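queue> pop job 88
queue> type: inverse folding (structure -> sequence)
queue> payload:
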């Protein structure tokens, strides 16, 4: 399933416009405002940093920032991803919290936030889209995030101007120490070859990819390990989801048919417990390591229970499964 931010583009652009003028100015001056966050134990021990995409995992409960962070902490995570940019508490309060407030809440719990959602406005003047994306990157920098993840888009007519904005974002993010990325998704991000097209069109060394094997199975039904042979050198992050089976009909010529003409939009095929689907987590990690992978991993796919406590237990189980899979690799 998709990794959607928890605000609409219209809501976020309205709030971001207030900060856009200053956000576009002096990235070098911002470095002093965002001291490096303490390294979590995973990073300190030389293991990949595993974060929780808490806004997605706990979306059913419409939690505010404090409750969201508490839930991720209770599940055993040390990084809470996809806060900042246009997501997180914005869904509850209508506008994003100040980045300094989010950072303080993270630090009070011994947490960091590693990945933020990057929402690129579509069908607006280039300067407006650039200002909005720079405002989000500035916000991510103040929170301490190191990766900005863009979900891509659907409209082919917008792809070239969209990529021009991402080129600027990659350059701006590089000065802030933020890697700009995209990943497998519906629309124009379905296949590995399409993601290579994104790399070619954005054309900046600070634009790279997150690997999402669960989404790849969900949207295409193809083998994620074979896709890593295409994308491996460009992967800087891993979205951890399992997938029970494909939901769409895209396929290689000559392959047998798969999927359904009526895809399950509820997420029941991909928001599942690790080990119950088709993703071989140990094999994915072994393959990533052959390309020198040392990036971040964040857990998205998790069954949403009837209560927050039940969902915490499910997220904790997926974290444990993932850690064991990495150890086995």
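queue> result:
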């Amino acid at each position: 399933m998709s990794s959607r931010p928890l605000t609409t583009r219209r809501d976020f652009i309205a709030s971001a416009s207030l900060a856009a003028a200053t956000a576009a100015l002096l990235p070098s001056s911002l470095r002093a405002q965002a001291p490096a966050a303490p390294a979590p134990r995973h990073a300190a021990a030389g293991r990949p940093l595993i974060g929780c995409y808490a806004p997605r995992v706990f979306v059913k409960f419409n939690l505010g920032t404090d409750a969201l962070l508490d839930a991720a902490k209770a599940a055993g995570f040390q990084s809470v991803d996809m806060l900042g940019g246009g997501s997180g508490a914005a869904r509850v309060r209508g506008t994003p919290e100040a980045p300094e407030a989010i950072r303080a809440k993270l630090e009070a719990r011994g947490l960091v936030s590693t990945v933020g959602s990057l929402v690129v406005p579509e069908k607006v003047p280039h300067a407006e889209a650039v200002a909005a994306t720079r405002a989000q990157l500035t916000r991510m920098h103040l929170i301490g995030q190191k990766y900005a993840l863009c979900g891509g888009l659907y409209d082919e007519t917008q792809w070239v101007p969209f990529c021009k904005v991402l080129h600027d974002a990659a350059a701006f993010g590089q000065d802030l120490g933020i890697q700009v990325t995209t990943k497998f998704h519906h629309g124009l991000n379905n296949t590995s070859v399409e993601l290579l097209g994104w790399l070619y069109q954005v054309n900046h060394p600070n634009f790279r990819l997150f690997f999402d094997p669960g989404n790849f199975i969900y949207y295409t039904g193809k083998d994620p390990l074979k896709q890593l042979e295409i994308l491996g050198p460009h992967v800087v992050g891993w979205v951890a989801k399992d997938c029970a089976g494909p939901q769409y009909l895209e396929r290689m010529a000559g392959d047998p048919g798969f999927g359904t003409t009526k895809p399950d939009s509820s997420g029941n095929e991909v928001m599942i417990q690790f080990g119950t689907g088709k993703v071989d987590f140990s094999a994915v990690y072994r393959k990533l390591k052959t390309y020198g992978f040392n990036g971040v991993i964040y857990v998205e796919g998790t069954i949403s229970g009837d209560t927050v406590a039940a969902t915490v237990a499910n997220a904790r189980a997926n974290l444990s499964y993932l850690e064991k899979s990495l150890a086995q690799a």
